[in-house]
Amino acid sequence: MEMGFRWFGSNDDPIKLQQIKQIPGMTQVVGALFDVPVGEVWPKEKIASLKKEINDAGLKMDVIESVNIHDDIKIGKPSRDKYIENYKETIRNLSEYGVKVICYNFMPVFDWLRTDLQFDLPDGSNVMSFELDKLASDPQEMIDRVESNSKGYSLPGWEPERLSEIKRLFDAYKDVDEQKLTENLKYFLDAIIPVCEECDVRMAMHPDDPPMPLFGLPRIYKNREDMLKIEELHESKYNGFTICTGSLGENPDNDVPAIVREFVKKDRAPFIHTRNIKFTSKTDFHESAHLSSEGSLDMYEIMKAMHDSGFDGYVRPDHGRNIWGESDRPGYGLYDRALGATYLNGLWEAINKA
User: Fold this and answer.
1) Phi, psi (5° rounding) for residue 315?
2) Helices in 237-292 by DSSP H: which ranges?
3) Are strands 2-6 and 314-317 parallel, antiparallel or unpaired?
């Protein structure tokens, strides 16, 4: 298992690589190029520059999150072939610089959704939260609320230039149901997985977050049954999953440790986001510290499932609290994710020694 830390780059992240390097057991930076428009080829020179910056700090860059999928691919427009060819070229370019895993998602319009980005906890920290009855009926109102609470940071999956055309996007997706979205995913996977096999780069699809249909948009990676269907779309270990324990755990019917055991044993989960959440009702939750007792998920059982299944891939702490006066990008502060990484490494060591 290699521990990683998501980083948004020196131009848009107040966290320094030197600080990440000081987290015990940290070996990887999970990076991305946020200045390349979705659908365009990631240039080699930009990849090389990012890798050099990370390597110079004494860290590695084996995982990229995310090479976002252009909407024309998800919708199934004739223009998708152009963007798929660009995606193939990006895979080849990333492979040349040692990238082994690409985390991506296939969610229409919204990559993730929360109703509050600064939900106050009793300990004085704040987190992101989701309450179904606070979900705005108008998607534009939801976007405005998120942008006004983002503390001035760009948020992954909420690209302003894309969401500025929200009405056009919803119109474009109006005929895309779950079946059509699945067919479009298969078309995409059939095209790119041979390139992944050639380049030894594994695709790791991220779950829907939260794992339920919202605003009438289809969702196709919500649970174990969806994962089995996605596996069958293109049989290859390069067609894999990012198991996000928080996203899957947001549905209390999902047995997260069992999902981890099944798909790690099958070598279909090269990347795991390991985070906790706290339910406030069957549909509502807020993020929490990683510690089992702070949330509703048993992190010991999750880590034990990874260990017992022979997991040797990449893991990272995910959405943390803003603590100790920190005012960083919601969910992506330094301190609580550093505590989370240390806690997860402690669990791993204890399970190993036991």
Assistant:
1) -140, 150
2) 245-249, 256-265
3) parallel
Three-state secondary structure string covering 120-134:
ECCCCCEEEEECHHH
Q: Return the residue matching tokens 């050099």.
A: 52
Give me the CATH number covering residue 287.
Answer: 3.20.20.150
Q: How confident is the model at residue 111 (pLDDT cuts 50, 70, 90)?
A: confident
Select from 206, 109, 117 the least CA-distant residue to 162: 109
CA dihedral sign, ordered 260, 263, 264, 270: negative
Determine the number of helices (DSSP H) and then strands (DSSP E) in the chain. Answer: 13, 12
Q: How many domains does the chain have?
A: 1
More confident residue, 249 or 151: 249
Could you identify the residue written with the tokens 């096999």? Answer: 197
Domain assignment of residue 231, given as a range: 2-353
By three-state DSSP, how is residue 29 classified? strand
Residues 6+ apart with CB under 8 A from 345: 3, 24, 25
H helix runs in the chain, sequence order = 17-21, 44-56, 71-75, 80-96, 139-148, 160-163, 166-172, 178-199, 224-233, 245-249, 256-265, 299-308, 335-353
Mean pLDDT to the nearest integer, 155-166: 67
3-state secondary structure of 169: helix
Q: Edge-to-edge strands of the sheet including 26-30?
A: 26-30, 2-6, 314-317, 271-274, 239-244, 202-205, 101-104, 63-65
Kind of pairing between the strands at 101-104 and 63-65: parallel
- Cα gap 176→341, rounded to integer Å: 39
Query: 298-307 b/e with 16+ CB inside 10 Å = b?
Result: bbebbbbbbb
Report d(CA 258, CA 44) in Å as an integer: 39
| CA 163 to centroid of chain Cα atoms | 19
Other beta carbons within 10 Å of 58: 12
As a whole number, the mean pLDDT across the chain is 94
Would you say 42 and 90 are in contact if contact means Cβ atoms under 8 Å apart? Answer: yes
